[in-house]
Automatic annotation (TrEMBL), chain A:
GO biological process: phosphorelay signal transduction system; regulation of DNA-templated transcription
Residue stretches making up the HTH luxR-type domain: 146-211
DNA-binding is among the record's keywords: yes
InterPro entries, per the entry: CheY-like_superfamily (IPR011006), NreC/VraR/RcsB-like_REC (IPR058245), Sig_transdc_resp-reg_C-effctor (IPR016032), Sig_transdc_resp-reg_receiver (IPR001789), Tscrpt_reg_LuxR_C (IPR000792), WalR-like (IPR039420)
Domain Response regulatory residue range list: 4-120
SMART domains reported in the protein's UniProt record: HTH_LUXR, REC
Residue positions, PTM 4-aspartylphosphate: 55
GO MF annotation list: DNA binding
Keyword annotations: DNA-binding, Phosphoprotein, Transcription, Transcription regulation
Name of this chain's protein: Two component transcriptional regulator, LuxR family
Automatic annotation (TrEMBL), chain B:
GO BP annotations listed: regulation of DNA-templated transcription
Cellular component terms per the entry's GO annotation: membrane
SUPFAM superfamilies in UniProt: ATPase domain of HSP90 chaperone/DNA topoisomerase II/histidine kinase, PYP-like sensor domain (PAS domain)
Domain PAC residues, every copy: 116-168, 244-296
Domain of life, source organism: Bacteria
PANTHER family registered for this protein in UniProt: NITRATE/NITRITE SENSOR PROTEIN NARX-RELATED, SIGNAL TRANSDUCTION HISTIDINE-PROTEIN KINASE_PHOSPHATASE UHPB
Keywords: Coiled coil, Kinase, Transferase, Two-component regulatory system
Histidine kinase domain boundaries: 318-515
Official protein name in the record: PAS domain S-box-containing protein
Species this protein is from: Desulfuromusa kysingii
PROSITE patterns per UniProt: HIS_KIN (PS50109), PAC (PS50113), PAS (PS50112)
Length: 215, 522
């Protein structure tokens, strides 16, 4: 069986090199070449390739955005990312938008065929140099997994924090919210305990960070 | 003294009577002698007093011959006393002065009494020039008839010198008042102008019609929209003093509208009762214009400096792109071709050479890659802001063993490229600060969407610093805060710093997502 491949890379010589690589093979053939992300999205729509070889950095629409759009059009397409960048953020972004493989360009001629075969069979392929980066990130993620992302404060408590951060005294807040000063003091202590903060500065930092009050 | 001894008719006295008579006469003589001594003592004291008087005095007979004078007189004349007494004024003064003097004496004599006072300057041969007040009067002899002229001379040289100084000071003060560019006015307690200088007259367009006698409120009317400062002026005009200084936009009766600053103080009398006000009015129009101009320059400067950053960033990006696209990819292709050559070739020697070339190319690829990142983080242009901040933290904080965490909203607002570049530079500056000054162990970075745009908050747990939000950030330029503020201001954003010693530092900034409205773009 033969698989259709779309090549997206702004570097013509590089595209030629890859085409050259495919010449000797019966199972892979190039259906089109695109020099930028936007063209790649259009060609993918028109030609419906099974595999897209996608350079990450391209003028106009970059490889990340192009991949997102191509996969939005057709989730069945397998995208193999190519990049000079070994930075994990590029790798993670590319994987996040749905790429099935990520190769560093300097090893592309050794690994590309292998990578295409892997993704066609529903597997993921990462260059060995970057597989480690992805793993590190996963470890980091699980370390912070238990952190709460939602606010631990009740709506009333958030209101009180906002007014405190805006410089109001307990008495003023009590008047504004039509409750007793003692109630406000209780809220205040409760908030401090919940957030594990110990002074007004930290409380203000929290309020601004959470967008409860503005600078 | 009447004798108590009766003299006999024949004129002879008895012996006893004679004895008694002699005793009486002796007693009388002794008494008279005592009286004379007493009178002589009195005369000496009187003469001493006369001589000791600090005021110059003399008297002369009707012929003009000096009968006596005191030391003070001799001193003023610069002549010894014995050279004056017995002489006339023609012997002790110039001809001209002597004639003047005798005329006065003559006038007095003719009037038969009274006194005359006049001022003159005397220039004695020995001694310095003096201003004196001369008073002369006719004195009477024992027979009650005019006997001569008594004169009194007071030295007023010092008094005149002071008077002169006072006049000079007054002139100086007045010319100062009239030439000073500030309007100066004196008001009574009702607000009526009692004095105004030239500058004030010009200010209110009353060079030809002096404003003295008018009420200040008829001359300066606060313009309505300047509520705050206008209120201050109104209070003043209604004698409700609140502060000693106010700024207001006012219109004069000619219709000219200008900014004025009024500084006033109370005017007191000797009993410390307020009797009015002294007002300094400064026309602020020019100064305000200069300030406006300065502000515009500041904005332009800020814009220039930010533009410079952007231009530099663009230049770097271009170089990095070339490095990445051209050099990097060509090296990769070269590597690929070497590999192809290696597979076609069977000579071990050539293979070894090709291996060496391949290694060199690999080293070059790696170098090009790190150089690219160094010149310009392409991540900034290829990925989102969050990734760029993370990259910065990886490259600046992590190598210094500072742990960091980034919390971000899921879908961060997209920023324009220029905004992103300037924000990136600001965050880089903050991170460099932390590494250089903060001695922090942990840094938390929060990126958040807010209605106005994007909010960045960088908190560290370092040593913090003493920060006065009222003071200009220029004072903290050593901390790089100045350039951060300039960038944020250029983006029309806001910056806030929370810190104190031992409390860590928290820098927050908010920038609008729209960068098209960048202030002062040049």
């Amino acid at each position: 069986m033969s698989y259709s491949v779309l090549l997206a890379d702004d570097h013509q010589m590089f595209r030629e090199g890859i085409c050259h690589l495919f010449e000797s093979r019966d199972d892979l053939f190039v259906v089109g070449e695109a020099g930028d992300g936007r063209t790649a999205v259009q060609m993918a729509r028109k030609m419906n390739p099974q595999v897209v070889i996608m350079d990450v950095s391209m003028p106009g629409l970059n490889g990340i955005e192009a991949t997102r759009q191509i996969l939005a059009d057709n989730p069945e397409v397998k995208v193999v990312a190519l990049s000079m960048h070994s930075d994990r953020r590029f790798v993670l972004k590319m994987l996040k938008v749905g790429a099935s493989g990520y190769l560093l360009k300097d090893s592309v001629f050794d690994e590309l065929i292998h990578a295409i075969q892997a993704v066609i069979h529903g597997k993921t392929y990462l260059s060995p140099e970057i597989a480690g980066l992805v793993l590190d990130d996963y470890r980091n993620l699980s370390e912070h997994a238990e952190e709460k992302t939602t606010s631990p404060l009740s709506p009333r408590e958030r209101e009180v924090v906002q007014l405190i951060a805006e410089g109001q005294t307990s008495k003023q807040i009590a008047e504004a919210l039509n409750v007793s000063t003692k109630t406000i003091e209780t809220h205040r202590a409760q908030v401090m305990r919940k957030l594990n903060v110990h002074n007004l500065v930290e409380l203000t930092k929290y309020a601004i960070r959470e967008g409860l009050t503005s600078i | 003294m009447q004798s108590s001894v009766e003299i006999k008719r024949d004129g002879r006295l008895s012996y006893a009577e004679q004895e008694e008579r002699i005793a009486q006469l002796e007693e009388q003589l002794r008494h008279e002698k005592q009286c004379r001594i007493h009178a002589e003592d009195k005369a000496v004291v009187l003469e001493n007093v006369f001589q000791a008087l600090p005021t110059a005095i003399f008297y002369k007979d009707l012929q003009g011959i000096y009968l006596n004078c005191n030391k003070a007189f001799a001193e003023i004349k610069g002549i010894f006393q014995h050279n004056i007494i017995g002489k006339t004024v023609f012997d002790v003064a110039s001809q001209e002065r002597a004639e003047g003097c005798s005329e006065v004496d003559e006038a007095l004599r003719a009037r038969g009494g009274g006194s005359l006072t006049y001022e003159l300057t005397i220039n004695p041969e020995h001694g310095r020039q003096r201003d004196v007040i001369f008073s002369k009067a006719i004195f009477l002899g024992a027979d009650g008839e005019p006997a001569g002229v008594v004169g009194l001379m007071s030295d007023i040289t010092e008094v005149n010198r002071r008077k002169h100084q006072l006049v000079k000071l007054k002139t100086k003060y007045q010319s100062l008042l009239e030439t000073i560019p500030h309007g100066i006015i004196e008001l009574d307690t009702e607000g009526i102008i009692t004095y105004s200088n030239n500058a004030f007259k010009q200010m209110v367009g009353r060079e030809d019609a002096p404003p003295e006698g008018l009420n200040l409120k008829d001359l300066l009317k606060p313009v309505e929209d300047e509520s705050c400062s206008g209120e201050c002026l109104t209070n003043f005009l209604h004698n409700k003093l609140s502060t000693a200084s106010c700024k207001a936009k006012v219109s004069s009766h000619t219709g000219r509208i200008f900014d004025v600053q009024l500084d006033w103080s109370y005017k007191y009398n000797e009993n410390r009762d307020v009797i009015g006000f002294i007002l300094i009015a400064t026309d602020m129009t020019e100064r305000n214009q200069a300030e406006e101009k300065l502000k515009r320059y500041q904005v332009q400067l800020r814009s220039l400096s930010s533009q410079l950053s952007l231009v530099e960033a663009r230049g770097r990006r271009k170089i990095a792109t070339e490095l990445h696209d051209n050099l990097g990819q060509n090296l990769v292709l070269a590597k690929f071709k070497i590999k192809s050559l290696k597979s076609m070739n069977s000579s071990p020697q050539l293979t070894s050479e090709l291996n060496s070339v391949e290694q060199s190319i690999e080293a070059a690829i790696s170098f090009a890659r790190s150089l690219t990142a160094e010149v310009s983080p392409l991540i900034l242009y290829s990925l989102d802001f969050e990734s760029s901040v993370e990259w910065l933290a990886d490259n600046i904080l992590a190598p210094c063993q500072i742990k960091f965490r980034i919390k971000t909203d899921d879908a961060l607002e997209e920023l324009s490229e220029d905004t992103q570049v300037l924000l990136f530079e600001a965050v880089r500056e903050l991170f460099v600060n932390i590494v250089k000054h903060a001695q922090a162990k942990n840094v938390h970075i929060y990126l958040k969407n807010i209605p106005e745009g994007l909010q960045v908050q960088v908190e560290d747990d370092g040593r913090g610093f003493v920060y006065d939000p009222e003071s200009e950030l220029e004072d903290y330029s050593g901390f790089g805060l100045f350039s951060i503020r300039e960038r944020i201001k250029y983006l029309q954003g806001k910056i806030r710093i929370l810190t104190s010693l031992g409390q860590g530092t928290c820098v927050q900034f908010q920038v609008p997502k729209e960068s098209s409205k960048m202030e002062g773009t040049v």
